[in-house]
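Hi support team,

I'm opening this ticket because the web form for multi-chain structure prediction keeps timing out on my end. I have pasted the exact lines I submitted so you can reproduce it. The total is 646 residues across three entries, so I didn't expect it to be a heavy job. Is there a limit I'm missing, or should I split the entries? Thanks in advance, R.K.
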Amino acid sequence: MTVNEEQTTIGVALEDLTREVKALQTDGYRLVQIGCTDTGGAYEVNYSFDRGYQYRNLRLTVGPETEVPSISDIYWGAFVYENEMHDLFGIPVNGINIDFKGTFIKTAEKYPFSVTRRGGDQCRNA
Amino acid sequence: MPERIIVPFGPQHPVLPEPIHLDLVLEDETVVEAVPSIGYIHRGLERLIEKREYTEYVYVAERICGICSFMHALCYSQGIEEIMKIEVPDRAHYLRTIWSECSRLHSHLLWLGLFADSMGFENLFMRSWQLRESVLDVLEDTTGGRVIQGTCKVGGVRRDIGAEKLAEMHRALDPFEAQCRDLGDVFLNDETVKYRLQGLGVISKDEAYALGAAGPTARGSGVAMDHRETGYAAYGDLGFKPVVETAGDCYARCAVRVKEVYASIDLIRRAISEMPEGSLDVKVKGAPDGEYFSRVEQPRGEVVHYLRGNGTKHLARARIRTPTLANIPPLVKMLPGAQLADVPVVVLSIDPCISCTER
Amino acid sequence: MSTMAFLKRSPWILHYDASSCNGCDIEVLACLTPLYDVERFGIINTGNPKHADILMITGGINELNRAVVRNLYEQMPEPKVVVAIGICAATGGIFRECYNIAGGVDKIIPVDVYVPGCAARPEMIIDGVVTALSILEEKRAKMTGAAQIKDDARQAAGETT
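Hello R.K., no limit was hit. The queue was backed up. Here is the completed structure from your submission:
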């Protein structure tokens, strides 16, 4: 039996993020990934969820300095993606359950995917 | 209250060829907490899209990992094909399925060997790797490469497998399956193996699902989730049912992989006998404009390639989420309670692929 | 000297994955297992740098493993030979333009043998080890020669004083 895969993407505002994620968790979705995209001066953060091969994305758009709340108290495993978000993009994430404070992925160039690409050693999660 | 000590594990260690570091907090011999740190193989592949055209990036995608190489190329190509609305010929779908399942066979046999090695069963390790060589021979005969194949491309495949070779492969499958079943029999029924693995590193179905486990790690806990069910490539025609175990321990994860070896052999057999005639590829014109989350079931679980094109030859973004990254949180939950001597077995039971994880 | 001569065909190998894609690593392991099976000659993959004669490195150097590679190399006893396996270990290969790759292994430690290929084939890797053996032998001869000279000098000095 073949299941059809569907993908939907909906935008989400920063203040609604944790509420929306919580609702998806109650609906029985699992967290697939959190990924960022540089859209020229701002970040698009995709929170992807799946239930029975139905793929749902919450898309958050944030500026370079905006602090993002962690969803690791809802999905415990989110810490890997959120640490990655901080280490590669330099997006400050607030309240991760296992916060590596910038040592999860160490790179030669700090925040290699940052829209501002300015580097510096300052950990934004501190 | 016993004293707590911290034992650093890795990055260079005899468990698997790749570097991963774990800080193990121990009380006597029992692990109470495990903190992973990664980054030893981080290369920064995702930014290579700036320097490679979208058709060339297939070869970079293939080198994200040398074990699931074909499937990374497949996942990437399917993503681009979806964005550009390219219809791939049927024969290419079937060939992709055959090579995918060959990759799965060689990956699972490799893992079974390493797993046997981690519990000190050297003989079984050698036997698994010996069987794996015959899969690599097929891959080399049909693609030219043992571990990096380079046959998948956007719009189809680069090589055909001739009728004679297909018939030879089909004939070889029966004796190969018999040998695999002999091998699997030891993993599934040997008393010492059972004694070592049962009840070790248990993770329940709900926990595995909530932590976002992927592949055999999830299926070993009873989560029936296998992306091949969505019928990409030729899986839709061939029909497919996920292999599921319910115990959630190291033995269950091992059993899932053993049974997937049998399932893969069956899929290859049916793909060969139902192989359609036709062309291998379609011409690809233009550049991708749009986005897609492409997903494929790898030996280690579901991989996600997020691809976004902006109408130029260079993609705007490629984000690759690999199954091992998703399996790290379950691993962190599995380790507490295990004995120090069992740590290698538990770590291996998620089939970690670090070069995938860190890209 | 005579006891060392027995070891010259059976070096112990330390393998480290610097930042390879895994392809070369599993080929290194494939050399040790049936079909290629170099273990029958007594060539053993050890996890302990202090037991190893040959360091096999796959993949290029990145920020985090720089110190690890140097540390492993320094822990190995003399004489030692370094074999860089695959094109990534030689120059950075397909990953050379990545932001986190500094280049081949020779940026950090001296490399004696380069094994080409992406991924390097087991036959090539075995060839590389055979080449490494003769270099190991040369280094050993040089070391024993130097020790002999020192010893002679010490004895000569002992006789005069």
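A quick check on our side: Residues 39 and 100 of chain C are 35 Å apart (CA to CA). Let us know if the file doesn't open in your viewer.
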